[in-house]
Amino acid sequence: MISRERIMEVLADYDIERVCVGVLGSHSALDVCDGAKEEGFKTLVVAEKGREKPYTKYFASREVNGLRKGVVDECIVLNKFADIMKESVQEDLRRRNTLFVPNRSFVVYTGVENVENVFEVPLVGSRDMLRIEDREREERNYYWLCEKAGIPVPPSYEPEDIDTLVMVKLPHAEMRLERGFFTARSSEEFREKAERLVRRGVIREEDLAEARIEKYIVGPVFNFDFFYSPLDDEIELLGVDWRFETNLDGVVRIPKTQELPEELREPLMIVVGHASATLRESLLNKVFPMAEKFVEASKQYFEAGIIGPFCLQTIVDADLNFWVYDVATRIGGGTNIHMNCGHPYGNTLFRTNMSSGRRLALEIKRAIEMDKLEKIVT
Ligand SMILES: Nc1ncnc2c1ncn2[C@@H]1O[C@H](COP(=O)(O)OP(=O)(O)O)[C@@H](O)[C@H]1O
Ligand SMILES: [Mg+2]
């Protein structure tokens, strides 16, 4: 893990008046850039060749016949995202006084070991907590932390003990960043489906051993976009989102009487978009304590604890209990839904448009004003 001292050294060389907010060009980069612009920062996106156009062209900062448009001031286009780890690129980021906002794409495309040990650029967030999102590889993953914190997660099963409807979580065989999830309601069905999906090339045999098998919670999904301010020691709910997933969302709209071809019997759950939601107000009472417990536990088990945005992804069952099935220890993937317009909860709290990206930038701005940048970077 890159030490605190090293990051402080890097910061000491920064021109704090000219800090720029940097982010990998994917995931929630537009929300981050929009928020940073709103708070008066320069923005920098590190993009990958072939997928750079939204940042170099469509949302690039520019003036067209007197009209100001765009939120991305500068864009570094690399052959591969992973090239961001090259010393020359890091040097460039530091020279531009970059405070880098980690998103899931950054971790996945560059590798968590590199993020922890090679990337010597200040991260606005908690560097040592990024790895706990990897439920297959990590023992101390988010399930472990939630259990320590006393936050309910769906109970887990061994393949031979399945006696209820379960969700089996493992990566897709080919699209390694996507899901090869499937459901089963008995050990037999688990084996049958697993075999069929291996044969169809949807999942890999060797991934099955590491798969998380957990109770299928029947109910709506609410992903809570929280923000923890280390400067104020306060937890804020900014937004709630849920996801559009292909081809699942299409399949559930086909009448049950229609027989499906084999490839549609286990639909995929590839996230392709997000929607905003609000929660029945009386249930908010149950949601904040989960966030409080999470923040508390994060401070107990990790060096700095959670910093800034995090997302508790939940399903509510018929008894109105929340179950946390996933956690983002950085800005959530669904925050673009409230970019610029803000979100009902964030807006209500701040009496102005408050998205996750803007809240992040506001924290950076205040940390600089309070001379406490060390509290929000790792
Ligand atoms: N225990 C569960 N019960 C029912 N649905 C679940 C459960 N866990 C996950 N899901 C569904 O699968 C989707 C993806 O799950 P998640 O754990 O977030 O995977 P990933 O880490 O790939 O995002 C969720 O949005 C939710 O709809
Ligand atoms: Mg998820």
Q: Would you spell out the secondary-structure blueprint of this structure?
A:
Layout: H1 4-12, E1 20-24, H2 29-38, E2 42-48, H3 53-58, E3 62-64, E4 67-69, E5 74-78, H4 87-95, E6 98-101, H5 104-110, H6 112-117, H7 142-149, E7 166-169, E8 182-184, H8 187-199, H9 205-208, E9 212-215, E10 221-229, E11 234-247, H10 248-251, E12 269-276, H11 284-301, E13 308-316, E14 322-328, H12 344-350, H13 356-369
Parallel strand pairs: 1-2, 1-6, 2-5
Antiparallel strand pairs: 3-4, 7-8, 7-9, 10-11, 10-13, 11-12, 13-14
Helix pairs in contact: 2-13, 7-11
What does this structure look like?
The chain has 378 residues and is of the alpha+beta class. The chain is built from 13 helices and 14 strands. Helices cover 30% and strands 22% of the residues. The protein has a five-stranded antiparallel sheet with strand order 12-11-10-13-14. The chain is globular, with a radius of gyration of 21 Å. It binds adenosine-5'-diphosphate and magnesium ion.
